[in-house]
Amino acid sequence: MKDLSELTEKLVMYNGAASGTILAGVAESLASRDEKKLTGEIHTLLEVATRYGFKDNLWKSYIAYLLATDENPFSVLCEMVGAAKNAGANVIVKKDMDCFYHIYNYDFSSTEDDFAREYFSILCDYKSMHKEENTFNKSVSDKVYYLMKELDGAASGDDFFDIVTGFYQKFGVGKYGLNKAFRIVGEGDSSKVEAITHTSDVVIDDLIGYEMQKETLVANTEAFVEGRPANNCLLFGDAGTGKSTCIKAVLNMYYDRGLRLIELYKHQLKELPKIVQDVKNRNYRFIIYMDDLSFEEFEIEYKYLKAVIEGGMEVRPDNVLIYATSNRRHLIREMWSDRSDMSDDELHRSDTMQEKLSLSARFGLSINFDKPQKKLFDEIVIGIARQEKIDLTDEELIKRANVWALRNGGYSGRVARQFITDLLSEK
Known about the structure:
Number of strands: 7
Mean pLDDT: 83
Radius of gyration: 27 Å
Helix content: 40-55%
Strand content: 5-15%
């Protein structure tokens, strides 16, 4: 059998999957017989396995993870169009896959004789204390486990090539392929898109009432996912009415069809052009999501948003939409003085009003979420209570919920959910 370091050094297209990774560290420590370095790499492997909920054979899980997450020119192109027949890159990648076939099935038994430790016997039959339902990165772990089981049936490097390219076509590659939601961390040149590993599993039917609003948002998202023209959306209205819940629900509805969501805060709006540049050539549909968006008069970050939505020199790509929620219909704080030209502060104050209205006008679709009336509030309380299997009559629920609402800010879906949480907290 070839030496592990020799196999990793031969990687060309997937050289990035080896450089600076646990694979490279293990190969180097085995070649140098450096037990201290080896134990450090195994410790890191256990950390990764815990984070992603790997099970059974941790070595094979990790190699499957490397193949699933390595974004190189071949894997990204394969995600979009599949593996082209007779392409020159195929020759290089097939040689890489032959190396990975031997890396994946590497026999560590001789190394345990060298170190007098059963490191890899344990790792190759690992019994985790981690419960599968508590895996925060379940989206990643499920796909990695799927790929590992497929690779277990491979008999050669050519089989590896077919399985891995098929995986890219089915699931994609890298963070965008394995996760559904993302956030921006850092600023300027150091900013990057990072996966959100624990997302809500809410579905559209969990939001009781607001049928017209839900249908409108779902129809627009459906058109977007199918590649038809779709509008940027502004969900506005009273606090606690389910605007954010609705967007999270449509993400879960269309995730399997390639929908992804990138969460952005208003102080990060200057990162928008960079984000659009990063995702415009990927084989997914991206919603840039801004929750509770509003601006005071002195805040000018909204100008970045205006340029990306409509007005900049670069056309917004077809695979990007902006979804925002706000308690303000026009997003920017308005003053009565904005509506009058009779002011000493500015020659044409009505121009100020038009400037403020121009942002919300660039959202082609505005959906209003009003605070529910008592009847709808009662329906929401009863509906959530039945979902949670609370054993109280409708009359008792409504009576107690109305007392709760009077004490906690009035009628809203959020207040209803908080009331149910309070009931669930009782012994």
